[in-house]
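Repro case for the chain-ordering regression, as requested:
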Amino acid sequence: MNFAVLVFPGSNCDVDMYKAVLDTIEQSVEYVWHLETDLSKYDAILVPGGFSYGDYLRPGAVASLSPVMEQVKIAAEEGKLILGVCNGFQILTEANLLPGALRRNQRLKFHCDFIDLVVENNQTPFTLDYQEGETIRIPIAHGDGNYYCDQETLDELEKNNQIVFRYKGTNPNGSISEIAGVINERGNVLGLMPHPERAVHKWLGTDDGKRMFSSILSYWRKQYGTA
Amino acid sequence: MFKATVYVTLRESVLDPQGNAVHESLHSLGYDEVGDVRIGKYMELEIKSDDQKAAEERVKDMCEKLLANTVIEDFRFDLTKQEG
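-- result from build under test --
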């Protein structure tokens, strides 16, 4: 399986993402600069965290208009797997690949900590190896993770089971309905604020993020065999 | 040539945590008459065009595509003619 890790000016979790793919599932992975205009060789596209374009205007707003994002939209239409973490999630909402938007944290503070998440939907290509309702521990590090959508969109998300992760206990950013991660209706584009790529070894404090990568590979193998 | 002044604010329905913090600070200074506070962005754009109607259309497009995120933000703008 071939993974791409997109790199924008200001990305800073690209190396973590790259190494997480190698360390957890040992698949082919390459960095892809934001000016690239061909993603056809990749099976999954990872949009990493950071501060693309210095968060100018709004987090993810400028990056969402990068040339590579046109290709990401095409890949999404083709049903390829796309995962956005933190700033990657912000970029995917700004690109309209995911519903809603990420606002400033309710208490206006950048929040960096380990938090508990509930896996609300384990029927996605990204969460197959988790149990439904399971609590997992994953770090967060963001100042703009306060997910918002209007009531109509929230009803849709609930109805289609598109809320994949919720914060358990204290909500670190004030997001609507405790949302930490959502998937598109088709089920191939996931965005979340917590960082599974920083949670792939016990010595990192938790390895609960590993199974996101193993899920992606299991799903892909079910679709296309063990190539 | 026109100057477009663009104002972007969070929608009424969206909680504005910065606005709330400033509201509380103003009250702590004794400005009890201050009600709701909304914080937004102000932008000045130089528009190279002679056609006001066309310029308005273009600036509206810019707001919808980039300058505002209409999921959470409202925008308005004014165009003023510039000499030269």
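Ordering looks correct now. DSSP finds two helices and three strands in chain B.
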